[in-house]
Amino acid sequence: MKIDDNFYMKLAIDEAWKYQLLTYPNPAVGCVIVKDGRLLAIEAHKEAGMPHAEINALKSAYLIENPNSILKTKNNSQEIHNFLIENHDGYFNDCEIFVTLEPCNHIGKTPSCANLLKVLKPKRVIIGHEDINKIASGGVQTLESANIEVSLRCMEKEAYNLLYPFIKWSNGTFIFYKMAQTLNGCIDGTISSKMSQLYVHTLRDKVDLMLIGGNTVRIDKPTLDARYIGGRAPDIMIYSKNKIFDNAIPLFKVANREVFISDDLFKLLDYKFVMVEGVYKLMNILKEKIDYIVLIVSPKIRNGINALNEIDIDFEIVHENYLGEEKIIYLKRK
Amino acid sequence: MKIDDNFYMKLAIDEAWKYQLLTYPNPAVGCVIVKDGRLLAIEAHKEAGMPHAEINALKSAYLIENPNSILKTKNNSQEIHNFLIENHDGYFNDCEIFVTLEPCNHIGKTPSCANLLKVLKPKRVIIGHEDINKIASGGVQTLESANIEVSLRCMEKEAYNLLYPFIKWSNGTFIFYKMAQTLNGCIDGTISSKMSQLYVHTLRDKVDLMLIGGNTVRIDKPTLDARYIGGRAPDIMIYSKNKIFDNAIPLFKVANREVFISDDLFKLLDYKFVMVEGVYKLMNILKEKIDYIVLIVSPKIRNGINALNEIDIDFEIVHENYLGEEKIIYLKRK
C-alpha cells in the first residue's frame, strides 16, 4: 500500500466523518500532522464552539514531544493559540499538515487557523477542499504570503463529500433521511442497539427540524426528543393532510419546541438542517430533495416488514463507519 | 485519535483483509513497518507461493531509503531474503515490525521469516496472534533468542478473526456462504457490478468445492466456473434429492472438474475450503455449519425478492471493505 499524501489525507477524512453532522453549523473537518515523516496527530473538529481540527491536531502533535507541557490542560481555542504562538520554538517547521478543508482565515468564535499556521511556519500544508464560505476563505493566500508551501485538492472528491452537508446548509437546506434496518432490510420491531439510539438522539439535538409522517405519530405515539443525551428537542413538522391529532401524544408535551402539522413540503426549505424519520412512503416524493440517507444497519437477519420494497433508487456510498457493533452508512443519490 | 501499537496493527489487519480467502491454503497476514517513528510500509501476503507479508513489508521499507536498489527487481522470496541478509547494514535496527500473525519459523515454499528477522535485528516485533500451525510455530522463541523485544497479543481478537478461516481449513473445513443483495435485501435480477463478479470468480478459482442448490441449477442453468479471470473451475456438489438433471446445463460441460449430486451435507466435510452459493432455503439447515457469510451489498434499493425473510440469525461484522462502489461484508454467526 502506498504511503503518500492521499494516505494521510484519508486518515484526516475518516477522523472527520466520526463527527459528521454533529459539527453543525460548522463543517466537519479533519487534520493530520506528520513531523519529519513521523505521524504525530489525527484529529477532527468535534462540535461548534470547540477547537477547529487544526488546533486539536497542533495540540496533540506538540504534546507528543512535550508530554508534560502545561498545554495539556488547555482546551479553549484562544488559549491553545496563545500558547503555541509563544512556545512553538520552531517545533512545526519540519511538519506537514494535512487538513480536509482550507484553514479558516477569519476570527469567529475561535481565532483564525491560517494566521496561527503563518506564525508556526510548517514545511507544507496539504488541503483537501477549498473553503466555500466567503467570510472564512483566503487561508491559502495567508499561508503563501508566509512562504509556506501549499498543496491543493488532495483527495478533493472525498473532501467534497465530507464538506457537502456544510455546503448545503450554508446556502440553503441540508435534508437527510435517517433509517434503521436489519441486513435484509427489515424495519419493524426494535432494530437498533442502545448505542445507535444514543447517536440518533445526538442528531436530534443538532437539527433545526424533524419531519415525521402523520400515521407514524398516530400509531407509534413518539416523543421525538433527545432525552438519552439530555439534549434539546428539535422542532417537528408532522406531514399530514388531516390536522387532527390526539393532544396526549407525548411529542406535543415536550417543552421549548414548536410542532406544526402540514402537507406542504416546501416548508422544509425554511430550515437549514432537517432530519426525516419514519415516513417511508414519503421516500419516493422526497427523494429529489434528500441530500443524504443515514442508514443504520444492524447485523442480523429478521423476518419482518421491508418498507423500501416499492422504491428504485441508486446510491453512492459516501462513507461508512461503525456504531458499536452496527454500521452507519452515508448514502447520496446518484 | 491515539497513534499507538493498536493503530499500526489495525493498518496491518486491514491490509491483510484485502486478500482474505485468496491466500488459501495459507493464512491472510499483514505487516507494517515503522522506523524510528516513521511509517514505511503496509503490506500483506497476497497468494500462496508469493512472499509472506513480512517479506513484502521489509522490501518496501528498505526501498523507501534506497529507492534505486536492485532489490526493486526482486520478487521471489528467496531472492529478497538473500538480498536483505547481505545488504541490510543495520537498516532495520530502529524498526518496529507489526505483524498480524507470529512470523513463521520453518522453511516451506518460502524461507523462514523468523530467521530472517533474527538476522535483521529490528528493535521490536509486535504480534497480533500466535501461530496455530505446529510446523510453522516457534517464531517468538527464535526472535527472543536473538534478544529482539517481542510484544504479543496486540489486537488479538481482530487478529483472530483475520486468522479464523485458516484455523478452520487447517484443522477441518472452512465453509462460507456467498450472497449478493441490494441495500434493502433484494436478491433477484443482476445485483452485482462487474468488479464484484470478478471477485466471485477469483473466489471460485480458490475453493475446493462449491455447493449449489438443485433448483438453482435447473432454473438458472449456470456454468459456475472462473472464466472471467481465466481461473480453475471448482468441483461442484449439487444439493438435490432428485438426481436427474439435463446434461446440457453448462456446469456439466466444464473440463477438469468433478460434479456430484447429493443430499448428504456431511460430504462437505471431505473438503477444506467450501463456498456455498444461491441455496437460500439451505441457510437455515446450514447455519450451524457456516463459518462466514460473505455478503456483497450493492448500494441501491430495488423492488424484488427478499430471500432471507424467513430466517432469524444474529451476526458479528468481522470486517468490511469496498469492492469498487459496492461493499463486501464478512459476517460470523454470534
UniProtKB/TrEMBL annotation, chains A, B:
PANTHER family: CYTOSINE DEAMINASE FAMILY MEMBER (PTHR11079), RIBOFLAVIN BIOSYNTHESIS PROTEIN PYRD, CHLOROPLASTIC (PTHR11079:SF162). Converts 2,5-diamino-6-(ribosylamino)-4(3h)-pyrimidinone 5'-phosphate into 5-amino-6-(ribosylamino)-2,4(1h,3h)-pyrimidinedione 5'-phosphate. CDD domains: Riboflavin_deaminase-reductase. Pathway: Cofactor biosynthesis; riboflavin biosynthesis; 5-amino-6-(D-ribitylamino)uracil from GTP: step 3/4; Cofactor biosynthesis; riboflavin biosynthesis; 5-amino-6-(D-ribitylamino)uracil from GTP: step 2/4. InterPro entries: CMP_dCMP_dom, Cytidine_deaminase-like, DHFR-like_dom_sf, Eubact_RibD, RibDG_C. This is Riboflavin biosynthesis protein RibD. GO terms for biological process: riboflavin biosynthetic process. Its EC number is 1.1.1.193, 3.5.4.26. In the N-terminal section; belongs to the cytidine and deoxycytidylate deaminase family. In the C-terminal section; belongs to the HTP reductase family. Residues 3-151 form the CMP/dCMP-type deaminase domain. Gene3D superfamilies: Cytidine Deaminase, domain 2, Dihydrofolate Reductase, subunit A. GO terms for molecular function: 5-amino-6-(5-phosphoribosylamino)uracil reductase activity; diaminohydroxyphosphoribosylaminopyrimidine deaminase activity. Keywords: Hydrolase, Multifunctional enzyme, Oxidoreductase.
